[in-house]
Design a protein that fits this description.
single chain; mainly alpha; cell inner membrane; transmembrane transporter activity; transmembrane helix; TRAP_DctM; TRAP transporter large permease protein
Length: 434
């Protein structure tokens, strides 16, 4: 069977099953098993067990449940609410007020949760009622939450970066460090956009509070923000200075999150139980998708599809920049229909030879890949951040949320072009990490 026929069969099965609502993880596994069977009958079936074991038997992947648990504890114990309250006091006098707090809160919580959707929902649940009560426009409210939530998979620890590192055998600590500067810079650009937008259209937000804060208010705000910021610095700083590995950083962060919740007297048996349940569910889904993506990747390798596509791209002789633009367009379209992790696991194993052939650094491309995934979080009809905010926003149409998110999507597109032009934005910190 030629690779063209195999590719057509795989593609038809994928789209047909997705169209009828089958979960993406099950689709990839089923198509992979069909592909392996078409190539070699049942003689390759025993290999599938080895693929599953080798995929999941990874010290790197142990970081996934640890970071998820850390974020769950902080979100469910009420510590994140205190963080947002403190930020509101400290940033409330800046033009755009609470919308600026949304971006700052998302940036800090991103360094705990590792999940874009969790970041958007956690800050959104706290912020949205307060912003509406104070007269902020929903156009500003919704966009700042969906856009700020995107920082959840860029600023470390990032679950997609853990999975990317395991998939392409890139150093995870370098990937984590590579996300810091772009994440903070993108957050600053978002905040700058909000400042300009509210300056041009003051009706979007109430006037900044001109009354000075008392020393007691500032001290209380710092007390609310300080513990979470110290937790973030301990996790990221421990990795940067080589004190802990990324997986050990996950364990350290989870322990510190529990201690922080105990110190604030907000950790209960019910909170701990819900956090553990959610951690197990999230981790199981992620690993199930990853396992099945490797089965599909094996089928693509056996049938020669991956090699043929890489050779076909090489024959086109695209410049690296044009190839980068094609990838951005491809992932933007894919992000409209499937979630980011599934999109990455579906495409990266196939495109990896072409990515290497274009001369892209795997650490740099990992950050570019996350930015592509962020675009997918904001593009209807399947942008997960749009649905997350819609679920807590009441009777607000998805179209309105997508419209509010459009400026942030355009900023991310421009940011992708910026890191292509200046790759040191991504690579400087990993090169200095101990």
């Amino acid at each position: 069977m030629s690779w063209e026929v195999a590719f057509a069969i795989y593609g038809a099965l994928l789209f047909a099953l997705l169209f009828f609502g089958v979960a993406i993880g099950s689709v990839m596994g089923f198509v992979g098993i069909v592909g392996v069977t078409l190539v070699g009958g049942s003689r390759f079936w025993p290999t599938l067990g080895d693929i599953v074991w080798n995929t999941l038997d990874s010290f790197t992947l142990a970081a996934v449940p640890l970071f998820v648990f850390m974020g769950e504890i902080i979100a469910r114990s009420g510590v994140s609410a205190r963080l947002y309250s403190g930020l509101t006091t400290l940033i409330g006098r800046v033009r755009g007020g609470l919308a600026q707090s949304n971006i700052a809160g998302c940036a800090i919580f991103a360094a705990i949760s590792g999940s874009s959707t969790a970041t958007a929902m956690t800050i959104g649940v706290i912020a949205l009622p307060e912003m509406r009560k104070r007269g902020y426009s929903d156009t500003l409210n919704l966009g700042s939450l969906t856009g700020g939530g995107c920082l959840g998979i860029l600023i470390p620890p990032s679950i997609p970066l853990v999975i990317y590192a395991s998939s392409v055998q890139a150093p995870l600590i370098d990937l984590f460090m590579a996300g810091v500067v772009p994440g903070l810079l993108l957050a600053a650009v978002f905040m700058g956009y909000i400042w300009v937008r509210t300056w041009l259209n003051p009706a979007l937000a109430p006037r900044p509070d001109s009354e000075p804060r008392s020393g007691r208010d500032v001290a209380r705000a710092l007390g609310d923000c300080g513990p979470v910021i110290l937790l973030v610095l301990a996790v990221i700083g421990g990795m940067y200075f080589g004190i802990v590995t990324p997986t050990e950083a996950g364990g350290l962060g989870a322990l510190l999150a529990v201690l922080l919740s105990l110190q604030s007297r907000t950790l209960s048996i019910a909170v701990l139980s819900e956090a553990l349940k959610s951690t197990v569910m999230t981790t199981t889904v992620v690993l199930f998708i990853m396992m099945n993506s490797q089965v599909l990747s094996y089928a693509l390798t056996l049938s020669g599809v991956g090699r043929a596509l890489a050779e076909g791209i090489a024959v086109l002789d695209l410049s690296p920049f044009v190839f980068f633009l094609c990838l951005m367009a491809l992932f933007t379209v894919l992000g409209m229909f499937i979630d980011g992790i599934s999109m990455m696991l579906l495409t990266v194993p196939v495109l990896l030879p072409a990515i290497l052939g274009a001369g892209f650094d795997l650490v740099w491309f990992g950050i570019a890949m996350v930015l592509f995934m962020e675009l997918g979080q904001l593009t209807p009809p399947m942008g997960l951040n749009l649905f997350a905010i819609q679920s807590i926003a009441g009777k607000v149409s998805l179209e309105k949320i997508a419209y509010s998110s459009l400026p942030y999507a355009l900023i991310i597109v421009a940011f992708c072009l910026l890191i292509y032009a200046v790759p040191e934005i991504v690579l400087w910190l990993p090169h200095t990490a101990g």
